[in-house]
Amino acid sequence: MLQPLKIFDNKTELIEYISSLKANDATVGFVPTMGALHQGHLSLVNFGLVDNDFVVVSIFVNPTQFNNAEDLEKYPRTLGRDVKLLQTVSDERIIVYAPSVDDIYEGKTVSERFTFDGLEHEMEGAFRPGHFDGVGTIVKRLLEIVKPEQAYFGEKDFQQLQIVKKMVELHEIPTKIVGCAIYRAEDGLAMSSRNERLKPDYREAAPFIHKILKSAKEKFGTKSAKKVTEWVESQFKKHKLLELEYFLISDIKTLKPVKRKSTKKEYRAFIAVYADDIRLIDNIALN
Ligand code: PAF
Questions:
Q1: Coil, helix or strand for 283?
Q2: 268 vs 248: CA distance, rounded Å
Q3: Which one of 21, 170, 206, 259 has the lowest number of neighbouring Cβ atoms within 10 Å?
Q4: Does a structural domain hold residue 136?
Q5: pLDDT at residue 280 in the model
Q6: How far away, in angstroms, is 260 Cα from ligand 1 center?
């Protein structure tokens, strides 16, 4: 029989509880999520449990990071199922924080304004205005509430990971940000809460994204970024179901698109694709 794990919807009670754990020298890790949990989230929680005595998992669909009202409305909310899934990992060492919008925003549901040394202007920042102000706002608030030793973020949202690392550095937040490898379904599709909303034919088509990324990586060994980009664009033009929003090869530090390849730099290919009305993102390390 599964025991109920501790669930808080109120930050004051959560802060008190975490203080009581820390008073007994326990270490606390943190995995922020928007719920609709899947194996990718559980892998972050498992990394957290290896490094820390307890892991706080926040489940909060953050309204300020959505630039599309319909996307926010349709975002899956499955708290009961999420808790059951977490219980399969651990009952005693996981603490869930599932706050209301008011508990976080206290009646003022707006983002703070951030600069992240220009990282916020590239890719997702260019296509989703205001998104990273929303992410910065919620992650900063959650880190201030939970005060974890370490917080775990998936590399699927690689730009978000780099931005959170930058925020922690600029705001001198004493949490180590740990990036974790992308968790993929057996057919290669990167795990995402949005996958649940894919209609069957789109779900079947979606692993094409990872297939193309793998081929792009291979081609990047001998071809220029421009040539690889043109090839990727031509592959999506021919595709009947998937619509390419962007494909970019960028320097992992600045996230700026590569102009001339250098052996001294590390690059990743980043992609955003529409599968019907569902927006999917993915990326791959190139060198
Ligand atoms: O990656 C996500 O799920 C969200 O952007 C995060 C980090 C939980 C902030 O709402």
A1: strand
A2: 8
A3: 259
A4: yes
A5: 98
A6: 33
18 close to ligand 1 (CB < 6 Angstrom): no
Confidence grade of residue 108 (pLDDT, cut at 50, 70, 90):
very high
CA distances from 191 to 39, 57, 109, 117, 155 (A): 7, 18, 29, 29, 11
Centre of ligand 1 from the C-alpha of residue 101, in Å: 14
**pTM tops 0.85:** yes
118: tokens are 């220009």
Question: Does residue 151 sit within a domain?
Answer: yes
pLDDT at 91: 87
Total structural domains in the chain?
Answer: 2
Asked if 198 and 172 touch (Cβ cutoff 8 Å), the reply is: no
Check residue 3 and give its pLDDT: 53
Secondary structure (DSSP) of 182-200 = PPB-TTSPBP-GGGGG--H
How is residue 136 written in tokens?
Answer: 């910065």
Residues spanned by the domain of 200: 193-285
Q: Say if ligand 1 is within 6 A of residue 48 CB.
A: no
